[in-house]
Amino acid sequence: MLYKQESGWKKLNNEERQKIINFCEPYKEFLDKAKTEREFVIESQKLAEENGFVDALSKDVLNPGDKVFFNLRDKNLVLAIIGKDALTDGANFVVSHVDSPRLDLKQKPLYEDSEFGLLKTHYYGGIKKYQWAARPLALHGVVALKSGKNVNITIGEDGSDPVFMIPDLLPHLDAKVQRERKAGEVLKGSEMHVLVGSIPCEFNDEDIKEQVKYNVLQKLNEKYDMTEEDFISAELELVPASKARDIGLDRGLIGAYGHDDRICAWTSIQSIIDLEETPEKTAICFLVDKEEIGSSGSTGLESRYIEHFMEELAARMPASKDDRHAVRRCFWNSRALSSDVNAGLNPIFKQVHDQQNASRLGYGIVLTKYTGVRGKGGSNDADAEFVGEMRSLFSANDITWQTGMLGEVDEGGGGTVAKLLAQYGIRTIDAGAALLSMHSPMEVASKYDVHEIYRAYKVFYAK
Asked: What strand order describes the sheet that includes 67-72?
């Protein structure tokens, strides 16, 4: 009669626990290789191609069992395995976002002050700004040069690389300037300037007023053929220079930048790649961009790219190519996991959670019926029948699952891509990991949950 949950680790012996710990090593390596949305898509496509996926546009006809991908501007990636059923019978979507909170360079970022070279930034997504000061940062991105050539930049990841940082104010001098500020203004957005140089250029030319800035530009020009104007057409991001690390003597947790939402993205990719048999319904893994700033832009889910690639699939499948309503029918009969993270119960700040309804690390995949803010604003609010289907599916396959809410009522809230999928009539629920320190430079996830999320997505694709 009563409902009881417990940590999934309790069900496992030492050998089974070690298998889960080993399972997570490739995930940690992937996080270290792919710290931006562009890098994640590129690395994911490589992995997919190594496992038999081909460009969908290279095939005129798609048959059950075919494995294809779509790549949109290296910001969206779609992996699809054509199912046995007609497309109009629906598809099974797992949709994750691959962008994470970070610092972006402004279009004219470089300046000199007090004989330091500095870069101006604008924060991307919801961050606690003070967490980004006085810590090593790496610069990642692409620059479209005036010549028409694109160059990729990664500085700060190799042990021999320099890193960058935002200098904070020492406690001896912060009493009047900083100490009395509210948490959101301990470090203001306009103060998030990054140290990039300190040595003046080699020659003492009186016509060059900012010699440290000029020296920085010389270094960029020597290695990347950049000039100052090329910053205007650059997409450069500052991310934590740290690597994914095990947390705790028992190594049960992973501390890393970008668990939100790459923990869901990596497991959704790995699970579709590992499907052993052709699924009944077409299985679709969709990696999206821009979720952290509202899913806007041409690579966010609001762009309606989902309609474009589904129409391309329908046009290549014999049963649907002549049906002009095939995609609409497909959406209406489809199911989706909006695979995004939730706030795990924080042992230090338990008061912001409804502990009875909070998700917990180590308790498996989290089914979140609704997110949103006050009054469930902006939520998808999955219907009872679909929640019941997912509950039954996971229980029948011995997958550890839990439910969760993003904080106590009126404490805050958040959003996912769920409502943007549901607007097509796709039955949708949020399903992902519980995290600690979400949106920080080092988020915390349970290795047990990584493994269970992988298993859950795999059975969802297949069943």
From this structure: 54-55, 67-72, 76-81, 282-288, 91-97, 335-338, 427-432, 365-368, 401-403
Look up tokens 């009186």; give the residue: 206
Peptide linkage before 289 cis (omega within 30 of 0): no
pLDDT, tens only, 382-393: 999 999 999 999
CA distance 407 to 402: 15
Angle, CA 321 vertex, CA 326 and CA 277 arms, to 5°: 80
pLDDT at 456: 98
Does domain 102-240 bear CATH number 2.30.250.10?
A: yes
Structure confidence by residue, pLDDT tens digits, 351-362: 999 999 999 999
For 432, the 3-state DSSP assignment is strand
CA distance 291 to 297: 10
Looking at the structure, give the CATH architecture of the domain made up of residues 8-100+257-462: 3-Layer(aba) Sandwich (3.40)
pLDDT the model gives residue 412: 79
Q: What is the C-alpha to C-alpha distance for residues 257 and 440, in angstroms, rounded to an integer? A: 7
Place of tokens 């992902």: 432
Note the Cα 394 to chain centre separation in Å.
24
Backbone angles phi, psi at 455, to 5 degrees: -65, -40
- Dist CA 243 CA 376 (whole Å): 36
The predicted pLDDT at position 13 comes to 97
Compute the average pLDDT of residues 269-289: 97
The residue ranges of every structural domain in the chain are: 8-100+257-462, 102-240
